Amino acid sequence: MNPNRSLSLLLALLAALALAVGGVTAAHRGAENVLAEAGSAASGWRSGGPVDAYNIPLSLHDLAASPNYAQDHTLFAVMEEGIFRSQDAGASWQHVLASLPTGERVEGQRVQASPAFAHDRTVFAIVRNLSNYYWTTGLLHSTDGGDSWQMIRPVDESVDLQLSPNFASDHTLFILGNNRILKSTDGGTSWSFHLLYSTDPSDPYPPEMWVLANHLAISPNFALDQTLFVSTWELGLLRSTDGGLNWQGMPGLAPTYAVAISPNFAVDGTLWTAYRTIEGIGDGTPESGIQRHTHAGAHWVLASAGLPGVFDPNPRHLSALLDPTGRVTLFTALSGPFAGWDQRTLFASQNGGESWSDLGPAPGNPDVADLASSWSTQFGREAHLATTSGVWSYGLGWCDELILNGGFEREEAWVFPLTPRPAGYSTTRAHSGLRSLRAGVEAAPDVYSYSSGSQAFSIPAGAQNVTLTFWWYPRSQEGAATLAKPAAAALQAIAQDVGPAEALANDAQYVLLLDPNGTILRTLLWTRSDAQAWQRLSFDLTAYAGRSIRLQFGAFNNGDGRLTTLYIDDVSVSACTAPPPTLDKRQYLPLLTFFSPLATPPSPAPTATPTRVATATPTPTRVPTATPTPTRTPTGVPTATPTPTRTPTRVATATPTPTRTPTATPSVTPPYVTPQACYDGLLNGGFETDLGWTIKPNPAPAAYVTAPVRSGSRAMRTGIAPGGANVLSYSPVEQRITLPAGLASAQLHFWRYRDDGDAAAGLSALAALPTREQDLADFAAASDFFYVLAIREDGSLHWLLVERVRDLAWRDITLDLSPLIGQSVRLQFGTYNGGDGGSSRTYIDDASLILCPPEGALVLPHGWASRVIGRPDLATIYADVNGILYRSDDAGARWRVIGAIPPAHAIVGSAHVLLASNGYPCYAGGPDVPLWRSIDGGATWHHYLSGQNLKPLLAHPTQPWFYAAGCNGPYRSPDLALTWQHQPDPIFGVLDLHFLDSVDPAWNTLWGGGISEGGGGAVLVSRDGGENWSRSTPLSPELGWIGGLRASRFFPGRVYAAAVYGFFFTPDQGDTWINNPEGLGDVLDVNRLADRSYGIFDIAEDPNDGGQRLWLGSVRGLYTRDPATLAWTKLLSKPYASWRIDRLLALDAAPQRLYVGSERGVFVHDLSSAPPIPTATGTPTRT
Predict the structure, then answer these.
(1) Class in CATH terms, 42-158
(2) Domain residue ranges in the chain
(3) Under a CB-based contact definition with an 8 Å cutoff, are residues 674 and 849 in contact?
(4) 256-284 burial string, b = 16+ CB within 10 Å, else e?
(5) What is the pLDDT of residues 191-208, one digit of tens each?
(6) 515-531: b or e for each residue (b if 16 or more CB lie within 10 Å)?
(7) Structure pTM?
(8) Is it true that 42-158 and 424-576 share their CATH fold?
């Protein structure tokens, strides 16, 4: 009998009760603790077991998430009953191992999936023999994803099991025990034994002392730095830099429990540990918490703001998650008995541990045995907890909490200025937990006073939806009144708690937004209320993205003897970013992989300054050559991802030749598609999966149903389920959609099945419907109705349909969404029930959002392509469609999905090699910018530190050569961008290199486009392979800012330069330069007026006539140059006639197609419509 079974039963009953009432048994300190709706992408708790035969959740020892969780949704959990597996993100579980084929019943103790699980399907587990004593503990593995298991060998008792990040190539794994670590380099067949103690003579413990180990963590860059960390009881944090042979004690508090290493450890040298002191230090240091270590463990600071800091329960589990947006999210969970804190809470940090957000305990408040993290398009960033009551997962979505201590349960983060009646924490009343914020006068005597509490925070620049919510409880003996805001000067004085020069006549309660200097940005609330009830308020703060602000709650009392008070609780500022692109489940979207070669602990990164010198100067000796080798792809995985096998040497090996460029050989090729006129902008419109849709919390929540359905097996119901209680409700279900600017049309199609149980007739006129989302909760209608609406970013509502009819049959509805083109909105279906009369419901199926760009647009199943990447001489081209990478090997006739693409400038080398980076912002400064490389046609991407801060500009057509630009000039790579050699020149102290081109097979002659800090431009030339550079264009006439540069592929010695003051070209290797502005007066600032936007950009030579006709993108449309007259003509009849065109691609393999990259999306222009070429071509006159 499991000794925890009785406790598990109790916790299961508590969890079931929590599920029944839609909440949790213990109050959550901070944001509301909610259970995720079935199928919802909203944040919250969810669990599907595993359970025993009596449906009681099992008590777990350990769990692991598949490294490919975003695609396969696989979890493994171990417990006394063996090993369980879930392949649907924890919704259901399979008991994959209870006993071995030889009959021994086993207890699962540790489990870990291979980092290459998507391909090798390998899982390791440590189990204990429950049947006999021939062996006590054994190491098992599975090579089919957990379907079958084989014994490798007996092992000693263990406390942790970890695999090398490069397990697919180095076959290395570790078993951590007390006082020792076991290491295998052959997949577990043979082992070496190493004592676990510090070899540092300054450590106070002798080598022979028994060391209690807790957790092992392996550097993500283990192949090069051979770094391991172990948390211990006596010695705190230990580090090994030789793969576990020798150990050194690291500074910090002890004992240490969990260790989490930064996914960017090779760059930032950062890790975190959980600690708990045996006895309080006595200087105010929390008894438990998180410490952040930098310089590969050499330095440490506390990182515990927001954690309770009590002895028990304490943070014993840590996980660091890198998501596709590049953010690192930390999770920690409390474990242990209650001694100063009554919840085993999950916390998250989005700022490296500077502050922690309270996510509450899992329902039932079970103890936690392990913690793992992952991300998926369905639930966003997730923490998975192995508890005494099954696996509980918490989905953060793609939102970050910006408020610290929003439940006011701890004395931190909030500032209370000293006034005659200062605000403070209060136990008088609370919406949840035990405390709230109190402003105003709570008890006599009343005095003239202002009192407030505030907190400062910063909103990320990339946030797309920022929402402030809080609960307020107002009291006023003066009674309720609608108050006019004071004059601006008076209100500003109130914000500073000093009061205006003249006293206000009325008490007031207020909520203000301030900038860092205390200036009022917005008055959110100015009122006097005596509601004496908790009410929820919500405000959209998206307009303040990228700014630092201060939130202030306050109350004013005028001292007339009548008291006014304001209580605030559960404050939250949620900042949401766009989720990563979502693919159909049948398609393959790989992750962007950080692959950094850094063999030594890094130094602190220098502060970025707007200087002309790059932050880091790459050198060719920092990166060993990687030999990519395709790994076996199991059946069902659409593509093969080459796994780089890295050699830890600091000397670059022989330069690879183009014939050695690896070619992806997928076992299952994604289907080819052809361009189409329109695309579906909805995800999962048939409701057959749980993706895409958010079921909003509501008294009568919407739900997926299996009847009635129009097609497939599921539909969506909004409204009250048959037999459900009739309550006031909206039953909203929604999906965030984007209608790109420039669309020709947008239509919503869906089928609905309407059951209206309200006998009342009529509806209020549309004008009487709420106009803002915050007003929906207070709206009351005369009868039930079905609705479709769009909720804009600012919270305003656009009603698309309001319908009251009983129609028990499927009907097709089409709605015009053209007024919303250019906006991102939340599309919401709902059924309003007034709570009286009959109940109503509506079923929805087969919904689609048909978005049609203008004629000629390049449209693929995932949307309108934003850019096409290729080379004129290659038939292989790539298209970026909302971050999803498509590839065509026939110049664009057919396309297939390859994977994802970084949101950065990209170039193509050979058909399978791509580089992507925007380069370092030399004048503005900022964080380091990664250079991404793919050598398998975009299936996977890797980041190499050698190319950090460089912008790729040029690729050789036949050799593995690349050029890139840094802040201090060009860099050349001879080996597929593995190493880079700087080619400095004094001219790059004046001009930044923005463009580079060459048609010389040996790259002896190179042409560059340089731009100065003041906006001037020049064409540069090197005639010795980049060793020396000179200015080719004369000082007069001025070129101005250069927007494009092209060396002719058809006319030797000819180079074109597109600039703001003219279109310039040389026919003779730069001996003379000719300005050819005829016809470009609308887009060239020839008179230096700078009165509006000007500019010309990319240049394409027409392959149909040997490059005689030119095509030119501009700030306003597409131009073509007549070969006979050399005059430019604008294409006025095209949809993009007034749009910015900055990318052009004409292909030898498809000479009739010109890919036109506009600010709205890509078009395909038919070159066969161009006028015929005359036999005689005008010769320009040299000047």
Answers:
(1) mainly beta
(2) 42-158, 424-576, 679-852
(3) no
(4) bbbbbbbbbbbbbbbbbbbbbbeeeeeee
(5) 887 887 655 555 554 454
(6) eeeeebbebbbbbbbee
(7) 0.51
(8) no
